Amino acid sequence: MKKLLTLCLMAFTTSALADYIFVVPQKPGGGTSQWAQIVATQLEPFLGENITIKHIPGARDIPGFNKFHNSLRTSNKIIMVSNGGNGVSFLQEKVDYDYRDYDSIGLMNLNIIAAKRIGENMDYPKFSAGSGKVPEAWAMALLICGPGLTMNEYLACFKEHVTWVNGMSNSERRLAFKRGELNGTRENPAAYKKHVETDENAEIWFHHGILQADGSHADDPNHPGFQLEILFEERWDVEPSGEFYDAYKLVKSFRDGMQKALWVNKGNPNTFLLRNALHQMSLDPDAIAAIEKKVGKYEWKIGDEGNAQVDTLMSFITPKALINLIHFNKEALGLASVYKEKLIE
Q1: Measuring CA to CA, which residue among 212, 185, 194, 198 is closest to residue 308?
Q2: Which tens digits make up the pLDDT trace of 122-156?
Q3: How far is residue 14's CA from residue 141's CA, in Å, rounded to a whole number?
Q4: Strands 300-302 and 202-207
Q5: Among 80, 69, 72, which residue's Cα sits nearest to residue 22?
Q6: Residues in Cβ contact with 123 at an 8 Å cutoff, skipping those fewer than 6 apart
C-alpha cells in the first residue's frame, strides 16, 4: 500500500509539474510560431507554469492540427495554436480537425494587410501565391474588376489582370517584393510591422477588416480607411455585394477570424484555469503593451467569445458560397479544392 501511494504521489507531482505545451503547426520562425512565443512569454506569469512550444510542421500547416485532433488533444496540458491557413483548409481540403470539437481558450481577432510598391499600377498586380493568401486573390478580383459580374466573368478578369506566382517561400516573396519583382504582398500584423512599415518604397494597399460579432467587418484602427469594402465603394460608387462577394466574405472571415487562436479538447479540466490566466493577461498593461508592440492593437476574444466566433463563421457557409469558393480556387489559383458537403449540415 505504501509503495502504491508513493507511485500515485509521483504520478500526480509529475503531472502537476509538467509544462503546458503550445502545439504550433509550422516550423520555428513562422508567423504563428512567433505569435505563440510572444503570447506564451506574457501568459506564463498568470498561469503560474511554464509553456513550451512544440512545432509540428507540414504541408499547408495541416499535419500539426490533424495530429492534435487525432491524438494530442486528450492531454490536459496541450493547447493547439491554429492559424488562418488552417481556416482556409478547413473550408476546402480534406482535414481531420474541426473547430466545433474544441473549446476556445482565446483568440486575437486579427487582420491581414496587403501592401504595394509606391507608384505601381495595381490594376495589374504581380503577387505570390499560397493557400493562406486565397482571400487576397478574391479581394483583388473585386477591387479591380468591379461590381455585378458573374463568377466566370470574375474568373476571366482575374486571369487577365493578375500575375499569380506559384512556388515562392515567404523569404523569397519578401525579397522579390523588396526588389520590385512583385508589386504586391501581404503580411499578418506582426510581420507587416517588421517587413513593410520599415520599407520606404512600400505602402498599404488594402486590408480585409475586423470580424464583428454580428457578422459584419469593421475598419482596422491600426490602418484606418483601407478596408476592402471602403476602397471598393470609393472606386465603384456602390457597396460590394453578390455571390462573388459572399464567397470572399466566407474565406476572408475564416482566415482572419481564426488567424491566431488557442484551443483545447472539450471537457479539458484546465479550461477554466487557462481562460482565467489569459483574461488576467489581457487586463495587464505591461503584458498587452509587449504584445501590441509586436502585433498591433487588436481585440482578444476569450472563452465563450471564442466559441461564439466559430458560430459566426459557420453561419457564412452556404452551398452557393462554398461551391463558388471551390470553383474559383480551382480555376483561378490552381488549388486542389474539394466541396465539403458536411460543412452545410
Answers
A1: 212
A2: 999 999 998 689 999 999 999 999 999 999 999 99
A3: 55
A4: unpaired
A5: 80
A6: 144, 161
* Residue 219 · residue 300 · CB < 8 Å: no
Question: What integer pLDDT is reported at residue 17 of this predicted model?
Answer: 52
- Euclidean distance between CA atoms 249 and 255, whole angstroms: 10
In the chain, % helix, strand, coil (3-state, to 5) comes to: 50, 15, 30
> Per the structure block, which three cell numbers stand in for 25?
503547426
Q: Are residues 302 and 233 in the same domain?
A: no
Enter the pTM of the model: 0.90
Q: Which of 150-154, 167-171, 296-300 has the highest mean pLDDT?
A: 150-154
AA letter at 222:
N
Show the cell assigned to 174: 519578401
CA–CA separation, 46 and 280 (whole Å):
7
27 plus 9 within the same structural domain: yes
Q: Are 197 and 324 in the same domain? A: yes
Q: Is the pLDDT of residue 1 over 50?
A: no
Asked if residue 229 and residue 211 are part of one domain, the reply reads yes
> Does residue 29 register a pLDDT over 90?
no
Bridge-based pairing of strands 260-265 and 102-108 is antiparallel
Q: What is the pLDDT of residue 147?
A: 98
